[in-house]
Amino acid sequence: MILSSTDQLGYIPKRIISLVPSQTELLHYLSLETETIGITKFCIHPDTWFRNKTRVGGTKNVNIEKVKELRPDLIIANKEENVKEQMDILAQQFPTWVTDVNCLEDSFAMINDIGRLTGKEMQAVDLVDKCRKSFNLLYKENISKNVLSAIYIIWKNPIMTIGGDTFISSMLEKAGFRNSFKNLNRYPEITIEDINNSGCELVFLSSEPYPFSQKHIDEFSSQLPGKKIILVDGEMFSWYGSRLLAAPSYFQKLYADINKL
Questions:
Q1: Which of 38, 76, 102, 170 is least surrounded by CB atoms within 10 angstroms?
Q2: What is the distance in angstroms between the CA of the first residue and the CA of the last residue of the chain?
């Protein structure tokens, strides 16, 4: 059974499997230590869960048999991060909640939904309230400044960026930047020529899913003259659970550091 945002389980789940790293971190924030019995190999936060919880494969290749062995009474997944065919198989046996997060407001709705499903509604509401206030303050502080155009790169060979219909693009705008490829969809492939012709001022190299490092800054610098190339924390731009609490202060510092360059 694939649950919708209006469904009620009729009970508080006691055996939860999370197939999404950022939502696993949210379950930890909501103090669902005992209830969370399974996670993926990419659910690296918190470290204690990563080291001690049962892992059920990756986000794209869930171990169906391992999930069945754990007998969950709720599986939490995501439309983009997990594979529909696998979720359909699991939903035939277990209540399965599939989220769809494409902007900050979607993330707030997801947090409230998971809070309601797990009996942690008040904690979830409080978390959303704190995040909303922090992002509103960030927006007010940065909106009066010069909005810088940026390209956010997530992969190399081929070079891939983010379109305007993604959560990362939404976060870029909240942080005070303008996505130079906002007119494109999802995660398009681009070329060095495309970047040079985009008119962007900044090129962000994300720490995930591709592990960009200083050597890549050096490499891109020779190909992209006149553009500021900066390593950024991908979790701050793409994790849509309780990580949102830390994102505004990170964005504020990033914006300030860039203006000093």
A1: 102
A2: 52
